[in-house]
Amino acid sequence: MLAFLLTFVLLLLGGVAYSGGYPVSEATQTCIECHSEVTPGIVADWRASLHARITPEAALKKDKLSREISSSNIPNDLKKVVVGCAECHTLNPKLHKDTFEHNGFKVHVVVTPKDCAVCHSVEAKQYEKNLMSHAYANLMNNPVYHGLLDSVDGLQSFDGKRLIYSKADVHTMADSCLYCHGTKVEVKGFVSRETSMGEMKFPVLSGWPNNGVGRINPDGSMGSCASCHPRHSFSIAVARKPATCAECHKGPDVPAYKVYVVSKHGNIYYSEHSNWNFKHVPWVLGKDFKAPTCAACHASLLVDEYGNVIAERTHQMNDRIPYRIFGLIYAHPHPKSADTTIIKNKAGLPLPTKLTGEPVSKFLISPAEIEKRRKRMEKVCMACHSTGWVEGQFARFEKTIKFSNDMTLAATKILLKAWEKGAAKGLDKGDSIFNEAIEKMWVEQWLFYANSVRFASAMAGADYGAFANGRWYLSKNLQKMLDWLSFKLGGKK
Amino acid sequence: MLAFLLTFVLLLLGGVAYSGGYPVSEATQTCIECHSEVTPGIVADWRASLHARITPEAALKKDKLSREISSSNIPNDLKKVVVGCAECHTLNPKLHKDTFEHNGFKVHVVVTPKDCAVCHSVEAKQYEKNLMSHAYANLMNNPVYHGLLDSVDGLQSFDGKRLIYSKADVHTMADSCLYCHGTKVEVKGFVSRETSMGEMKFPVLSGWPNNGVGRINPDGSMGSCASCHPRHSFSIAVARKPATCAECHKGPDVPAYKVYVVSKHGNIYYSEHSNWNFKHVPWVLGKDFKAPTCAACHASLLVDEYGNVIAERTHQMNDRIPYRIFGLIYAHPHPKSADTTIIKNKAGLPLPTKLTGEPVSKFLISPAEIEKRRKRMEKVCMACHSTGWVEGQFARFEKTIKFSNDMTLAATKILLKAWEKGAAKGLDKGDSIFNEAIEKMWVEQWLFYANSVRFASAMAGADYGAFANGRWYLSKNLQKMLDWLSFKLGGKK
Amino acid sequence: MLAFLLTFVLLLLGGVAYSGGYPVSEATQTCIECHSEVTPGIVADWRASLHARITPEAALKKDKLSREISSSNIPNDLKKVVVGCAECHTLNPKLHKDTFEHNGFKVHVVVTPKDCAVCHSVEAKQYEKNLMSHAYANLMNNPVYHGLLDSVDGLQSFDGKRLIYSKADVHTMADSCLYCHGTKVEVKGFVSRETSMGEMKFPVLSGWPNNGVGRINPDGSMGSCASCHPRHSFSIAVARKPATCAECHKGPDVPAYKVYVVSKHGNIYYSEHSNWNFKHVPWVLGKDFKAPTCAACHASLLVDEYGNVIAERTHQMNDRIPYRIFGLIYAHPHPKSADTTIIKNKAGLPLPTKLTGEPVSKFLISPAEIEKRRKRMEKVCMACHSTGWVEGQFARFEKTIKFSNDMTLAATKILLKAWEKGAAKGLDKGDSIFNEAIEKMWVEQWLFYANSVRFASAMAGADYGAFANGRWYLSKNLQKMLDWLSFKLGGKK
């Protein structure tokens, strides 16, 4: 505490103190007084952040392109101090079910997009239209996808004859699927703890910790801005780097990051990025960076060195993406709504295509919207590439979407035959479609291999289109499925 | 355009203007005038490059070791200006079938090794002897390898009983194997496009875009210097970094980069390289860098801090490599010619070994040449390691070549038995040797696991020699092949 | 040599010369005189190291927290010169069986933890209690684990009916398992070599080169400090970076590094670490670094910016780890002794648990010790995270340990049934438990998938808990094992 006072000299002026020249609210000073000793890491992290060195008032004075703040009606008491602990953790105390009394303040643990929206309202609004914000419900409330989750996360035991599946428990889901999709964070009660500052009461949260993109928060909001802007620096630089996206987009189901690494863009990024400027707003193409990162193509505001806008900032990640190549089960035009639980195909399944691949158009974006999004992405490409180059790239990509869908269809047909012949039990028998060997092979056909091939094409990292979970496996897996069926049927076909 | 004039003040002196003190040809100025707005990214990239800041004349004045240019007879009009857009994109217009009229210039789209050879003739010559420059034909014109390609890239459908294979189509190959091997780029016609500068005519190219190492160019040349020196900075620093090689040498078939990452060299590189100098020519071992990258061992001119040459620069990548450990099907001494389509084994197959592993010596380098190349590599090793260390390393490596070849042979013998017993249809039946389950397992034995084990040994990254696609799989796969055969034969052996 | 004299001006003062202001022993000067030309890379590496720029005497004068040296009784002749070639390579010549006469010095090749202990005695002592230091014997002298090694590294041949396994040979083991575990380095004789300095005699070493963590050295000691502090800079900065640990902790058996990369900690590290200070001692959390690396959580001395100690430095890597989640075969409390060959379970097998999972408590740490270690780790977590966060993380982790052990048990039960039914030959038949298909699937269940799931939980990188060798495979593999058994038994169950 003494140490704190020595290093952080404050000059009190009507509830505001100045730290290193920046106005800090009295409330935040109180937080820091203890927390610089209790949780020194995050206090230090925050101190080095932009939040600690600019007031919303000053931020609003920047010219439109340079501004990182988008709300115009920021409350006066927040406007004139830097964004410290109290500014976020004490906002709207009644809304947050995890609010608790803490040294005279009504503090909540889980800061949410609703809190961030006070200053970043445009981004928060865009994010609501982002599929990611619905990642919890889109998985948990879709019976087909939830069935897949149970087949992955459910405990199994062997009774001497059969494998007995259990439903997935909350801890296991939080350690697996919901790590990225987001957990449901709920207040389960309050607990007293002996701390270095005496006995204190804290809320007990289920589904905590979690930073998933579709986290259900105690204030009812969805998502976590810290998924990509990690606490407590909330840096735009971090969000622009591919390691951020890699946290959830690297696995065999969605190998976007891996594809990027072996693309020419990734090659240049990994060779050169230490000389680039990841903090500059707006992001000047060719000057601040020389090859795109995930953010450059999918989210960032990009300008050329004369200030011409090449792409507007968006936090709706499919704003520049016409097709949803993360095939569940087939690639298809993007859903219209971020809430995909409303989708039903002809067979009544909550899937954006039929089991044989035809898209369920009424829930998906129109050809005109496809064209619009494609044009937005092409404009980014064309900042460095000629029209011929970009057209060639897209022609190839669309061919690959068709190729990978067709290879999925071949697998589906083998599966349907297995169900028909009784070699496995499927939809018609009311059984899970994910619990038998051939069903798991079928899942890998689309979830691993077809996805891999499409990401490889979209971002031009061909390893994942060839031997690294790519076409080699698409092809081999079909043969494996057929062999399994043949062994199962005892050689009879 | 106005913006351009403001930031890029030119002083015209007889067709040459000065930009930031550097002489830029009038033609290049014209290009930049529009392209700094049309494709700002690449113009900015070029501006920061060495090409934009040195004339060939000045480059030739450097001492021999520091020189990055190797031609002595550079035309006078090129000598006195920096290497800009027009210097490369308007060279030899008649040779390039993709040449088109563009604002009064005869421009070609695809810059090729023949263009680069004007200043970098020695490197271009060496590259012609590089297996990589023949990567297109070596794959496409070898019926065995092309058969493998078709089994990977060919679309399959299921007719209710069998899988029907199609031949691979051009888009799919370009998104898969030919991404690295290179496509055949051909002019398919010309197209008019409405542009921000009015209507313009452009060539339509097949196989475009592509940066593959053996690309067949519209001027008849093979390869793309931009594979490793990416446009439009053409940086030597990028080519020296392992992320460049990773683009094509990371997959399970050729995991060189992955092995490097888990080697001690990779450990040091990833921990320390931000303090190293990747631009300095010649590359001073111990001073400019402390652990080798791919380029250091295989390509770069290396000197010690007194200027003693440790290794000469080479663009023939096997110049310091005696054995071709990328086993197709077995590891063997390197082929004499970069064109491997000329090779025939005793059985008439276009393979450098017999199906049972014996090398077809007359097409492969001699023991004396093996020794010479090994010595070149050892000299690099010995700049940091003692003789005993290096001998130990090579003894182990040669043992591993034998081990992996023997494990491949065991797999081949199981396959031959499967063919003999009619469990699968192979060469004797005129059938593809890549389309059945056991054949695919056999391919993985050499293409994935044996290759992995050898790269792991060569570069001392043992993960890939043990559990990461290494010996664990070499061993397990043999058992899988045998089980498959036994199931297929219904328990009969 | 002349060059050397020019760049390295020496002022001789009673056996000590000054190079760049630092006192270098006469012996080391003599080494450098030749080796700056013979092995320029390592001399340059050393010159830039801390060893070359500080004497033990000066190092001892630093305050306790800043000190990187821990011995108090350093011999006087070593105290007053920097730590050069001779200081390490000529220590205790009689102890080292690889000592040889070299230009008038008694030099040994293999510098060992006993040599380093002269100045770093505390670290060397701690390392002796590190499981890693026993990695050679713990593998080679445990018949079960050695059986696994033989099944991986042993050459196989196919005799037309069966696969014939050979024992693993030394070269193959050194290229595989023993690369990380360490080889046994023994003097096999001496050899004369023609060198640029004339004919010279050198020892011939088996198991060389090697940097494995449990290397058996010619002086009888175990381990290699250069595993993590690579020669010849021996940098603390390198040891603190995750690329160092990745060399041996990245494979599918122990994917700690891969998990780190996709964790939030890894995200921040890869996005921000180029701005951090990896050299500062003690390591100031929040200031020198903002997200932990492997070393931060498991080894480093950590303080906050007021100098409060958060964690003491340790070279016993499980000092802050209660559970051994590298399950062989099940996760369990850490062994008491670093020598695990002394462990016997009830069935007499050298395993820390029964085949059905119960830990063999008498060889494992007590609940009190578990609690103590957990508290040490929690203190590190709590420097940035709240108590609720940390408790949630640990509750989840312990659930995952149980989950993964239960999924391993299910696999074991299927295996036991296969043995019982005669579908495979196991322990009861005196056969290897690693050589049949179902046994290899069983190994993957714990060695790859259960391990992956646990590391993913411990370090919060959920990709490896879900689809990347995680729960998807835990689940699918059980089904595969059961299918194999069913096919093998011809449909009979």
Brief account:
The structure is a homotrimer of 493-residue chains. With 493 residues, chain A is an alpha+beta fold.
Notes on the protein architecture:
3 copies of one chain form a homotrimer. Chain A is α+β, with helices and mostly antiparallel strands and 493 residues long. Chain A has 3 domains: 1-89, no CATH class; 110-227, no CATH class; 234-488, Hydroxylamine Oxidoreductase, Chain A, domain 2 (Up-down Bundle), CATH 1.20.850. The first copy, chain A, has helices at residues 2-7, 26-38, 40-47, 56-60, 76-79, 85-89, 113-116, 121-128, 135-140, 143-153, 170-174, 177-181, 236-239, 242-246, 256-261, 264-272, 294-298, 367-381, 387-420, 437-459, 471-488, and strands spanning 16-19, 22-25, 99-102, 105-108, 156-158, 163-165, 186-195, 198-206, 283-284, 302-303, 309-311, 323-324, 332-333. Chain A has a 3-stranded mixed beta sheet with strand order 9-10-11, covered by helices on one side. A two-stranded antiparallel ribbon of chain A has the order 1-2. In chain A, a hairpin with a 7-residue loop joins β12 (323-324) and β13. In chain A, α19 runs parallel beside α21 (471-488). The first copy, chain A, is globular. The first copy, chain A, starts with a helix and ends in a 5-residue tail after the last helix. Mean pLDDT of chain A is 95; it is low at 1-13. At the A-C interface, α1, α3, α10, β5 and α11 of A face α16, α19, α20 and α21 of C.
